[in-house]
Design brief:
homodimer, alpha+beta, L-amino peptidase D-ALA esterase/amidase, Ubiquitin-like (UB roll), 2 domains, 7-stranded mixed sheet, 5-stranded mixed sheet
Chain lengths: ~400, ~400
């Protein structure tokens, strides 16, 4: 059902980073469900994490390990989220890190653990431990595609993006993979994103890049408003490119940031395009808001309205539902007569009512597309913001009603 | 699909109030779609209305007329919401009032108009005008059941409640009808409620009763989080009972308030039981909150979580989704170890993880019921609050994807 989501790209290898994938049998036998990313010494890692207060054990452990040591491994399992497992969950995440450390001669806190899958079932530590040798055996710089598959849960397609640019005449590469599907909402959802570059980046800049670009991409997508306990987006810089080191005042920073942003955006949008049951990719742009908060309040109210989402699924230009959602978004003293709503290039609402030149046929033509933009002009200020979401179909319900069976 | 919703009761007549119903053919021919309630002189009317800022034309006009004159008629049409119609919508609502005034020798502002149905299509004023004589012809005190049917939209069953009590040895009666189905959310949704009593109530007390009891009932139900532009809940007191006048310090007020509250609750819960696609009636009780706001934040986050709602639909005790929803509800500095979650009488979560004596079989037994209570203890304070909702099924999507066709 993925909306306009193509096949994986030919990933550029990131020198200094190898990926290994195993079929450990965590939830179902025979599928890729365990990924190891091995970093050469000197690689920098920065990340952003779920804002759900019930954050999962691996998120707690990854944050702790990041603050203690230079990471050498990322260890990702699908099929089990290791969330809601109390202290045992934290102990289990540590055990997995220690097992990888034993096999590789590194310290346990040099492994960053990530889990995705069902909440509230004990992590099958032995199954994961038994899968590690296979993953380590096939570590290779060109295993991005296998890793993209190895982190999927209810995703129907693997997700990846890659690019090459030159800084000061020297090649730099960026590659990334992501997974999502449901429980996706701004503040990181059952969303995992792993991006890597061979650029040499000053550590504080690396963190600021993942924070800034993660905010503009992964933190602006929503499938269903639910925020997972496990989300993480990690950015690795191996520093193996010959291009000059990137710092906050580097002349090459803008070019690099734009390339990196494109990879963030592609990976984030891919999650929406493959949202559970999605048949439409929806861009919601709110303009002329007085603040970012009110722009996002309006955008997310639309993005989470079941009535708006089912109308989009039905390709029904039911603009009354959009109007009603704007009206309940909590914006104080909204001037209804100033509000403009457009569906694609068709004016829907002007002066508090249906636009004079609107016709059902014109609205229908936009709705029949698979990529649809809803623009809301609030007429209150200068702030614009954008959120991406998908429609709500019977298949979303079916997928989530049957997830554990 | 209505969950545990029985047939209409035998309504008690409310002396001083007659109901007339017509088949005007507003949206579809042959169905009851126009209701007139005629009040004898001296009746008091108070109401609460949608908080959606795009409130519909009839809401604007009803509020204006309430402030100007003693109401003699309530005029309700289904099939068209007369919302999103700008100034023409207001003019159309006024025209309908004037038409009823012409036929009855009253002033136009003695009619309160209400509309429910599709947003953004012009109100068919002539069709409504032509239906008025039929409605007036069959005005009768015992037409509550016909009126309950005449205000339905996507409701599968009509909704009503009635009771009789004695104050100071004299009989007092309360009857009411409501409609809902979708776009239902706390601050009044496509929810219409009309309650009437023959009690004699001091006007300020009447408004405080509808505000207080509406808050505890209609403003605590949610189907899908969408707030309609048209909601209204009206309470009429005809004053024809021989029981003593009710004032704020009346010794009989508590008994009357409890009886009235039961009618409010029955009508509000009936809307949830007949929520679009509902197969379960869910009570969400949040206890030990530090404030009403945080109790409601947690309750509504659960009530609107598509993942929680689909798990309820699937009868799947997927408590991880409940836990994750509590964690994203925005309660500051939540102490995860203090949180308790119960499903019916089964402890689900204790100390940040699955309760020690929880078994899937026990959770499944609760989930298999059609009426399910989720209790969340936050361990932060003394405030308790309750919200009622339903599950999310494929049928919800189907109903809302096909509404206009």
């Amino acid at each position: 059902m993925a909306v306009g989501l193509g096949p994986l790209p030919d990933f550029h290898a990131i020198t200094g980073l190898r990926l290994g994938v195993a079929r450990a049998g965590i939830k179902k036998p025979g599928r890729r469900d365990l990924v190891v990313m091995a970093l050469e010494e000197g690689a920098q890692v920065a990340g952003i994490f779920t804002r759900n207060q019930f954050c999962a054990a691996p998120v707690l452990v990854t944050r702790e390990h990041l603050s203690q040591a230079a990471p050498r491994f990322l260890l990702i399992n699908t099929g089990n989220a290791n969330a809601g497992n109390g202290e045992q969950g934290v102990a289990d995440a540590r055990t997995c890190c220690a097992a990888l450390a034993d096999l590789t001669g590194t310290a346990p806190n040099q492994t960053l653990p990530f889990s995705t899958g069902v909440i509230g079932e004990p992590l099958p530590v032995e199954v994961i431990r038994n899968g590690l040798p296979e993953a380590l055996d096939n570590l290779a710089e060109n295993h991005w595609a296998e890793a993209a598959e190895g982190i999927m849960t209810t995703d129907t397609l693997p997700k990846g993006a890659t690019c090459r640019l030159e800084l000061d005449g020297k090649p730099v590469h960026i590659s990334g993979i992501s997974k999502g599907a449901g429980m996706i909402r701004p503040n990181m959802a059952t969303m995992l994103g792993f991006l890597a570059t061979d650029a040499d980046i000053e550590p504080a800049l690396l963190q600021s890049l993942v924070s800034e670009l993660g905010e503009q991409s992964f933190n602006r997508i929503t499938i269903d408003g639910d925020t997972s306990t496990n989300d993480a987006c990690m950015l690795v810089a191996t520093g193996r490119s010959e291009a000059p080191r990137l710092t906050a005042d580097s002349p090459h920073l803008n070019a690099f940031r734009e390339a990196l942003k494109a990879v963030f955006m592609t990976l984030a949008h891919a999650i929406v395009r493959d949202g559970e049951g999605a048949t439409k990719f929806i861009t919601i742009r709110v303009e002329q808001a007085a603040s970012t908060q009110e722009a996002l309040d309006v955008a997310y109210t639309l993005a989470h309205s079941p009535l708006v989402k089912t109308a989009l699924f039905a390709s029904d230009p039911n603009w009354g539902r959009i109007l009603a959602a704007v009206g309940r978004a909590g914006v104080p003293d909204l001037d209804l007569s100033a509000i403009e709503i457009d569906l694609g290039d068709v004016a829907l609402v002007r002066n508090g009512g249906r636009a004079a030149d609107y016709t059902e046929a014109r609205g229908q033509a936009v709705m029949d597309e698979s990529d649809i933009t809803i623009r809301v002009g609030l007429g209150r200020g200068e702030v614009n913001d954008t959120v991406w979401t998908c429609d709500l179909s019977q298949d979303y319900v079916t997928i989530n009603a049957e997830y554990r069976t």
